[in-house]
Amino acid sequence: MSQISVSYDRKFSDGNYGSEGLAMSWTGESDDEVRPDIGQIDELLVLLRRLVLEQLARSQAERVRWAAYRELQGPHPKPDDKLAVTVPEDVSLEDLPF
After folding, report:
1. Does the model's pTM come out above 0.85?
2. In the chain, which residue ranges form alpha helices assigned H by DSSP?
3. What is the count of structural domains for the chain?
4. Consecutive H or E run containing 2
5. CA 32 centroid distance within chain
6. How do residues 65-80 score in pLDDT, each as one tens digit?
7. Is residue 97 assigned to a domain?
8. In a 3-state reduction of DSSP, which class is residue 24?
């Protein structure tokens, strides 16, 4: 029997020389004598991360709320990412509506 601890900690600036953060941890026992199940640990870490960010997204500080919510939504395309546009061969560039 081995003990497993998983934790997640996140802190955001409030934009007024302060910050707000939250940490959550989970500790449990594993039946695995040799090595704990890495998949379970990953799932717990994802759960703790989501819980921490959801709580920070409810902050009274607007910038903390915005940053936590943005991080919850996942990565957004970078401005330099190219958008692929294909034009069918039977359409002339003259026919396009711009």
Report:
1. no
2. 38-56, 62-72
3. 1
4. strand 2-13
5. 30
6. 999 999 998 766 565 5
7. no
8. strand
